[in-house]
Amino acid sequence: MSTKQIEVPAYVADEFNKPLTHPSNKPHAVELSLERVYKLINEALQGIEHPDWDVDHRRYHSPHDNEPYGFEFERGKFYIYTEERGRRSPIAVFKSRYSAADYFVWLVSKGTRSIDWELFLDMEP
Predict the structure, then answer these.
(1) 33, 61, 66, 113 from 123: Cα distances, Å
(2) Is the pLDDT of residue 61 over 70?
(3) CA-CA distance, 116 to 108, in Å (whole number)?
(4) How many other C-beta atoms are found inside a 10 Å radius of the C-beta of residue 11?
(5) Would the pTM count as exceeding 0.85?
(6) CA separation (Å) from 54 to 12, 38, 77, 89, 105?
(7) Does residue 88 have a pLDDT over 80?
(8) What is the DSSP code string of 37-89?
(9) The dihedral of CA 60, 32, 108, 104: what is its sign?
(10) How far from the centroid of its chain's Cα atoms is residue 104's Cα?
(11) Would you say 78 and 102 are in contact if contact means Cβ atoms under 8 Å apart?
(12) Per-state percent for the chain, helix, strand, coil, to nearest 5
């Protein structure tokens, strides 16, 4: 991933530059929590025929892959994009995995679905 700088207020930059953390001090807590979020997105979007979607480099995805909406985690941030003719266009950047996931499900489902945060609690460290 290549990066470029953009100008934002200092408090935004400070928050976005902090590493992603988890309240649990258990080993791999962030990774385990992310896996749960990905699985929750997949669960919420089951049965959506269109538009196509892709989470975490096709770890979870719709049955088709025709110009999908995408959800990725890179360097402590969550990116939501659209893809058209192989070119990605950013829609949103989030620091919170929860806000990013909620927005992604709302966007893909056109507001008809939401995440049931009570599911898969055993995956949370």
Answers:
(1) 7, 20, 31, 22
(2) yes
(3) 16
(4) 8
(5) yes
(6) 27, 10, 17, 14, 11
(7) yes
(8) HHHHHHHHHTT--SS-EEETTTTEE-S--SS-EEEEEETTEEEEEEEETTEEE
(9) negative
(10) 7
(11) no
(12) 30, 20, 45
